[in-house]
Structure formats: structure tokens, C-alpha cells
Specification:
Blueprint (H helix, E strand, L loop, with lengths): L9 H21 L2 H6 L3 H61 L8 H4 L30 H100 L2 H4 L6 E2 L8 E2 L9 H83 L6 H5 L7
Antiparallel strand pairs: 1-2
Length: 378
């Protein structure tokens, strides 16, 4: 058997290498704490930014190309229009030259009729040898031509004169209408001035009448004020005299009471009352002393009640203090028992923790134990 070197399948190796590179990139992306926690893929974002910039550059280049194409098309269109205009101008010039050279009015067949045989084409054949088809002027064709032309000229003159007369009449009529309008405006101005003058006279008369009326009113108001002042002075003098001579100023004791009858006491008039009598003052003083004695008795009774109540409160407070002392003693004993129980629990927990750390969990895991996890992205 001969040893044959078979070709190596490079596509399989490339596929394996591509998968290994993808797996390495995936691991780096997954096991990167910053990217995994923050959720930010910088490579993808940079790729998107580059793609966006590339797209913008392509759009700018396309816009520039379109602008250049548009400018080129505009220049081509302008050149085409200029060429067409130049071609049209040359064609018109050549046509004008052709007309001036080969189609002159003097070379037409009826040039002898239009230009009086000046420069017309001369027929070399005698007229007696020409046939009926060569006839140009027939018998009776130009009869009355001059008369008709004169009549037409006179008619044109009459029409023109009539038109001029009509324009003159229209102009005169317009001037007349304008003059009437001017007169009407002048009359309106005159009437306006007259009306303004009449209004001014009426306003002046109205102001005079109003001033007279205001003066009369002012005079009447002054008279009324004077009469009112005099009446108030008289009333004030009468009131002063009445006040000076009344019972209030003279201090009459009988004037402060009014008998009502029926065994009831007399009614006091507040507006005339001048004070109490000595008997009334003495009665009020006696009643006041009686009220003071009653008030003192009430105060003594209140003090006795307060002293009894204070004694009762003192007894209650002493009983409450004794109850508080008993409750405090019970709480102290309860705390002592609780502290003993907690100390016992702490000793038991310490013994359990020592048993776990020194007897049960003696084989601690090394770093190699943790490195065997998360070695693949799948």
C-alpha cells in the first residue's frame, strides 16, 4: 500500500475556527460584569454608529452626484435652448433674405397695377399675339374708380368729422357735468357753512339759556340755604333755651321718676336720672355686706371640701406608689429569669457553632472547586 497525501478540507477548519472565535466573543460578552449588569453593548453601538456614518456619507455622495447631474442637465438644456434660438434666428434671417431677393413685390405679375409699371416684369410678346388667358385688364373694369375713391374719401372725411363732433359734444357734456358737480359741491359747502353757522347760533343761544337757568337755580339754592340756616339757628336757640330751663339742668329729683300706679314702684327715666338717694345707697350697701358674708361662708366650705379631697388623693397616690413598687419588683425578677434563659441559649448556640466549625465542616472548598463552574457560555 502506498501512502497518499489527501487534501485537507479547509472549509471545515475555517468553520471550526469561526465557531471558536464566536464562542470566545460570546464568553467575553457574557462573563463581562460591566456589560451584563449595565446592559450596554459598546461593540454593537459602535458598529451602529459606523453604519449610520457610512449611510450618511453615502447619502451625501448621492446628493452631490444628483446635484452635479442636475447642473449638467440644466446647462445642457440652456445650451439646447440657445442653439434653437440661434437656429431660429438664422432661419428667419435667411427667409427674410430670400423674400428680399426672390419674392420682391416688383417681380409679381400684378406689379404693373400696384406700382404703375415701375420695375414690373415686361412682356416681350406683342399683345395681339397673346391669347385670352393672358389678359390682365378687361373692358369696363376701371370705370368710375376715381369717382368712387373721391366719394369714399369724402365719406371718410364726413365720418371723421362726425366722430370729431361727437367727441367734442362728449367733451362739452363731460365738462358740463363736471361744472354741475362743482356747483353742487360749492352749494353743499355753502349749505354746510350755513348749517354750521346756524348750529353755532343755536349752541350759543342754548348756552346763554343754560347759563341763565343755572344762575336762577344757584340764586334759588342760595335763598334756600339762607332760609335753612336761619331756621337751624332758631331751632338751635330754642333747643339751648329748653335745655337750660329743663329739669335736667335744674336737677329736679321729681323729674327723674314717673308714677305708674297700681301699687307699683315709680318708673325711673334714664334721660333725667341724676343719681341715687341716700336711702337707696344705704340699702345697696347693706345688701352688699350680706353678699360678702355669704361669699365668705361659701369659701370656707370650699376649703373644707378641697382639704378632704386632697387627703383622699394623698391616700390614692400612696396606694399607687406601693402598686408601682410591686410591679417593678415583678419586672426585675422577670428580667433576671429572661437573662438566665438567654445566657443558656447563647451557650448552646456557641457549642453548636463550635461543633459545626471544628467537627462537621472540616473540608473547606478550594478555588479549583469554584473554577469548574461557568467555563462555557452554553
Amino acid at each position: 500500500m502506498f501512502k497518499v497525501d489527501l487534501p485537507v478540507d479547509e472549509s471545515t477548519e475555517k468553520t471550526v475556527e469561526r465557531r471558536r472565535a464566536a464562542e470566545t466573543a460570546r464568553k467575553a460578552r457574557i462573563f463581562n460584569t460591566r456589560l451584563r449588569v449595565m446592559g450596554l453593548d459598546l461593540d454593537t453601538l459602535n458598529q451602529q454608529v459606523q453604519e449610520k456614518k457610512h449611510q450618511q456619507n453615502m447619502e451625501k455622495q448621492m446628493d452631490k452626484a444628483l446635484d452635479k447631474l442636475r447642473i449638467y442637465q440644466d446647462e445642457a438644456l440652456v445650451q439646447q435652448n440657445n442653439a434653437e434660438e440661434e437656429k431660429r434666428r438664422v432661419l428667419n434671417s435667411e427667409l427674410t433674405k430670400y423674400w428680399a431677393t426672390h419674392q420682391r413685390p416688383e417681380d409679381s405679375r400684378d406689379a404693373d397695377l400696384k406700382f404703375g409699371l415701375k420695375g414690373a416684369f415686361k412682356i416681350a410678346i406683342p399683345e395681339n399675339e397673346l391669347g385670352p388667358a393672358s389678359m390682365q385688364i378687361f373692358k369696363g373694369e376701371g370705370v368710375g374708380e376715381e369717382l368712387r375713391m373721391r366719394e369714399q374719401i369724402r365719406k371718410t372725411e364726413r365720418d371723421l368729422r362726425a366722430q370729431m363732433d361727437e367727441n367734442e359734444k362728449r367733451h362739452m357734456r363731460d365738462k358740463h357735468i363736471e361744472m354741475l358737480a362743482s356747483k353742487e359741491l360749492v352749494q353743499q359747502d355753502v349749505r354746510g357753512a350755513q348749517q354750521a353757522a346756524l348750529e353755532e347760533v343755536y349752541k350759543r343761544a342754548s348756552r346763554t339759556t343754560l347759563e341763565n337757568y343755572n344762575q336762577a337755580l344757584a340764586k334759588e339754592q342760595a335763598e334756600k340755604l339762607e332760609e335753612q340756616r336761619k331756621r337751624e339757628e332758631q331751632e338751635n336757640l330754642a333747643e339751648m333755651w329748653h335745655t337750660m330751663t329743663s329739669d335736667m339742668m335744674t336737677e329736679c329729683a321729681e323729674a327723674t321718676e314717673r308714677q305708674v300706679g297700681g301699687g307699683r314702684p315709680p318708673q325711673v327715666l334714664p334721660d333725667r336720672w341724676k343719681g341715687m338717694s341716700p336711702e337707696q345707697l344705704k340699702s345697696i350697701q347693706q345688701e352688699r355686706e350680706q353678699q360678702c358674708l355669704e361669699r365668705q361662708k361659701q369659701r370656707d366650705a370650699e376649703k373644707i371640701r378641697e382639704a378632704a379631697w386632697d387627703l383622699k388623693l394623698l391616700k390614692l397616690s400612696r396606694e399607687a406608689e406601693k402598686e408601682d413598687l410591686r410591679a417593678a419588683e415583678l419586672n426585675r425578677e422577670r428580667r433576671i429569669q429572661m437573662d438566665r434563659y438567654n445566657m443558656q441559649l447563647a451557650q448552646e448556640q456557641l457549642a453548636q457553632q463550635e461543633y459545626l466549625n471544628k467537627r462537621l465542616y472540616t473540608n473547606k472548598p478550594t478555588k479549583d472547586y469554584f473554577y469548574q463552574f461557568n467555563t462555557s457560555s452554553r
